[in-house]
Specification:
elongated, 60% helix, 3 helices, mainly alpha
Length: 100
């Protein structure tokens, strides 16, 4: 009976892992609007300031505002898979101690 369950458990674990990886977001760098061909005035002004005087610091410099994203699904999914993995470890240790 044990030799029948082992491949089934392995197939279930592999299917679960592949199913989880299906929902991992891809890193496609596409945009909806066409790319600009002219540089923005802010970038050229900052470039002129930094190239003309090295001692002057630019206080205007800011990082791009990429927005924030909701991390709740990642935290919940990570916790779920961590719990599932811990359950598999406990199950295998229990089976080993009982001599199955």
């Amino acid at each position: 009976m044990s030799s029948v369950r082992r491949p089934l458990l392995t197939a279930t674990a592999a299917g679960t892992l592949l199913g989880a990886l299906w929902f991992v977001p891809s890193a496609n760098a596409s945009q909806d609007s066409p790319a600009r061909t002219e540089p923005s005035p802010q970038v050229t002004a900052q470039a002129r300031v930094t190239t003309t005087s090295a001692e002057t610091s630019v206080d205007d410099t800011r990082l791009a505002d990429t927005g924030s994203f909701d991390t709740t699904p990642y935290v919940v999914g990570g916790t779920l898979f961590l719990t599932l993995g811990a359950g598999f470890v406990v199950y295998s240790v229990r089976r080993e101690r009982l001599g199955f």
